[in-house]
Amino acid sequence: MPAPHDTARRLSPVIEAACAIDFGTSNSALAVLDRKAGMRLVELEPGAYTMPTAVFYLADAADGSPAGTALHAAGPHPPRLFGRAAIAAYVDGIDGRLMRSMKSILGSSLLDQTTDVGAGRSVRYRDVVAGYLRHLKQMAEAQAGAAITHAVLGRPVFFVDDDPARDAQAQAALEAAARATGFRSIDFQYEPIAAAFDFERGVQREQIVLVADIGGGTSDFSVVRVGPQRAAALDRKADILANHGVHVAGTDFDRRIELGHMLGELGYRAFGPPTDGAAPREVPSGVYFDLATWHLINTVYQPQRVAELRAMRGFYADRRHHRRLMTVLDERLGHDLAARAEGAKIAVADGGAARIALDLVESGLHADLDEARALQAIDDDLARIAEAARATVAQAGLAPAHLDALYFTGGSTGLRLLAQRIAAQFPSARAVRGDRFASVANGLALDAARRFGLTAGFSAAR
Question: Are 78 and 58 in contact (CB under 8 A)?
Fold first, then answer.
């Protein structure tokens, strides 16, 4: 695997501030360090220290657009929205182009290709990444009250699996994007090592920890050696004993819950009337899978598709199902349903129950979800994730009993069912919960403090 920059340098004493960036596939976080105030996480959106890794290019740059204060139209850049404002613009059907999961194109041939963003404009994917990083840099500088030219960025152990050349290209592309924003000194640190740094602060002896970083799109596991004697080293790649993961995580849970416990009220897995003595056939399911897949929801609103689905009324034995489906399409309620599925998952995360209101579709309509039903919906996904955890430890050449601790980070680790399933694989290991959204950013800031000589007055955020 390509190593992050690990030069054991210290910056000149005139350097007063730096930042640490957790540039995530689904969400990003940012920490600022300076000699006077130490380290603090930056509030990227009101009340939130994380922000969706999303950019929306507005086709209409006219005054009075919904961009508000998040609009950046200065210079040659097309007007853009970032984070939740970007997603809201997309959900609301505003004319433009949404970009998400930009991190996944690093190391691919797409990076230097251009894409249309409306109004006859196009941008390179490389510039989409740089634009998002520039937005984070500006927020860091606003927090620090000074220009920032030094940064530590997180990176996965593998940007690209089983292809060292493309993996190195991915890191180089991210570095080039960061330099294009004005950063002059850039170091990288592996994300699981960063999370381990956050855990390592409270460690009094050498330990082996399994870092479980489970977000919206992937479940990543790393076996890491930590300890007070190791903490001062800048190059920690040898302390990553194994790394593994699966592309199953929080958004998959939401999808399963929506399909299994909500969309049945709209006709998913319903049957049509018997015809010519033949047994009833299940109604076509494609529209329901698309409604439960976030990035495909807008495709069901295309006029031709709506017309085709409207003509399928006779496919449904229970015409209420078809009427409800068409209400969702006509009123563009797909993203609202997806959000309610996610909210229900969160509500039952610690053993609670939720009544999912569907009255926006039909008065009095609802679906009930409790922990047992949630488990039924996502059990296969939980099993795959738990198996990935076990396989990671095996790749390190260790037995489950050799593990000292489990360190949970990432938004989806708040789901009790998931944490319990992983912990059951390692009954002798101590389970520790980090900050689900900021552990990596905290750890990157600890790394930046050491690299850039900004340890004076350092206090980690919680």
Answer: yes
Per-residue DSSP letter, 49: S
Q: What is the mean pLDDT of residues 52-63?
A: 79
Token pair 């039909």: residue = 362
DSSP sequence for 265-283: GGTTT-B---BTTBPP-BP
The alpha-helical segments, DSSP class H, found in 370-458 are 371-395, 416-423, 439-451
Q: Where are the alpha helices (DSSP H) in 145-295?
A: 164-180, 191-200, 250-261, 286-291
DSSP for 7-58 reads ------TT--EEEEEE--SSEEEEEEEETTTEEEE---BTTBSEEESEEEEE
Q: Structure tokens of 414? A: 């708040």
pLDDT tens by residue, 41-57: 999 999 999 999 999 99
Under a CB-based contact definition with an 8 Å cutoff, are residues 424 and 227 in contact? no
Q: Nearest-5° angle of CA 197, CA 198, CA 203?
A: 75
Instruction: Give the CA distances from residue 3 to residues 171, 182, 444, 449, in Å, rounded to whole numbers and listed in that order.
Output: 9, 23, 15, 19
Residue 61 CA to residue 196 CA, distance in Å, equals 44
Distances (CA, A) of 87 to 60, 81, 98: 16, 9, 7
Q: What is the CA radius of gyration of the chain?
A: 24
Confirm whether pTM is higher than 0.90: no
Q: Which two three-digit tokens encode residue 213?
A: 């970083």
Query: Is the distance from CB of 51 to CB of 82 less than 8 angstroms?
Result: yes
Report helix, strand or coil for 445. helix
Q: Is the pLDDT of residue 19 over 90?
A: yes
Angle between helices 191-200 and 439-451 (to 10 degrees): 90
| Per-residue pLDDT at 65 exceeds 60 | no
Half-sphere exposure of 114 (CA within 13 A, CB side): 7
Structure tokens given for 359: 């009255």
DSSP reduced 3-state for 302: coil
User: b/e per residue, 435-444, with b = 16+ CB within 10 A?
Assistant: bbbbbbbbbb
The more confidently predicted of residues 100 and 3 is 100
Neighbour-count burial for 296-331, b at 16+ CB within 10 Å, e otherwise: ebbebeeeeeeeebeebeebbbeeebbebbbebbee
Residue 59 DSSP one-character state: S
The gap from C-alpha 158 to its chain's centroid, in whole angstroms, comes to: 16
